[in-house]
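Lab notebook, bench 4. The sequencing result for the construct came back, and we need a structural model before the next group meeting so we can plan mutations. Quick request posted to the team channel:

Model the 3D structure of this chain.
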Amino acid sequence: MAAVRARGLRLSAARRLVLEALFAADGPVGAEGIASGLDGRLPSSDLASVYRNLETLEALGLVRHVHLGHGPGRYALSGSSGLEYVVCERCGEHVALAPEALDGVRDAVREACGYRARFSHLPLAGVCPACAAEED
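Done. Here's the predicted structure in token form:
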């Protein structure tokens, strides 16, 4: 909250609710989840206001968004930006990992085409163990 003020913005009640929801969330959360108050754990908020505040906070570098499969993006505090993600393309289950856990994949991508792969905004997609067992 001090970072918002340090960047010259007011800490409105709506902005405070968005930040509180991001601190209270167990991981990246959708704007709808924030607006619902994380299913009643916090006061609910107007969805349009949530999106406006998320956009502002992202522009300030305090919030980032990640796409975990199909559907709208999810948001997390930038302090958790060290995490990268793997997502199941069948069930949508996702796992947050320390970046070094994906270094082998990153090295293979760089060797194959020269790109430096990151999985913090768009996850590495595949099939989780449970869905793979169903396929077998």
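The radius of gyration is 17 Å.
Will bring this to the meeting.
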